[in-house]
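Thread: Newbie trying to understand structure tokens

Hi all, I'm a second-year student working on a class project, and my supervisor (Dr. K.) asked me to get a predicted structure for one chain before our next meeting. I've only ever worked with sequences, so writing a 3D structure as a token string is new to me. If someone could post the tokens and maybe explain what I'm looking at, I'd be very grateful. Here's the chain:
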Amino acid sequence: MLKKAIFPSCLIALSSVCLAEDYYLDATTMGVGATAGENLVVKEGCLDPNESSCSDKFKWLSSVSPVKIGNLQIIGQVSGDFEIVLTADFADGPKSIYLLNTDNKGISLKLFGVKKWEFQPNGIGKGGDWHYNNISGWNGGNNFNEIKISAQNGVANVYTNGQVAGEPINFDSGVIFERVAIEGIISKDRLIDVKVRGIQGAGSCSATPAPTPSTPTTPTSSGDCMANYLNGQLHVPCVAVSDPFGTTTVYDIKLQQQSSGFTFDLDMNSVKPR
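---
Reply by user tm_fold:
Sure, no problem. This is what the structure looks like when written as tokens:
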């Protein structure tokens, strides 16, 4: 009942929020069991995945089960100079990082273990290459690696742990990409964080004004009611909810962004009266 009552107000508030120009998803700041994207969940374990007990435990994102494939779709406009950065320990099996426009054309980095990988243009630009050997600078075994796609002045390079890996892709610097897709995450993978620097939420700053609620919300004694969006979570400190008997209660809620864009799931554990 509460979830159904709160959602319309939250969607109205969301339409007037301008998202930050950087996207950051950090599993280490999330609770165990929290979800993100499609079939991705936060897990906790030892640095060495073969150990069952350890003094220090870490958190990461991976697929919810061995029979599910996890994906993350980051919706927003990317153009000019930008960076896509992942920190991960990838097991065997194909993984792909796509940067796509509205026609699903763009740039892709595909990993088939460390023995085969491709950095290719798909209808946009030229260059890149593919390899049947180890990626330069890659830490093998159960070690974590930083994978970066960095573009400046229409030239995109791949870096692994700070080292250039392969040939660059040259493209028109005026191209506007509409989404970043990270696909193929399995239950043995460990994805620590994802950063997209230089992304603007599509339509988040539209000149069209947000709809006005048909009934005014109830003021509260606190003036700190600014909604905040950070790391895929929308925190709305003040939502007025009226029951059928005319009683209005103001709640503090948090919502988690879905991978499909401007759709959020209510975290029921976060709901509390003001």
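A couple of things are worth pointing out once you decode it. Confidence is low (pLDDT under 50) at residues 1-20, 202-222. The helical segments are 2-14. Feel free to ask follow-ups in this thread.
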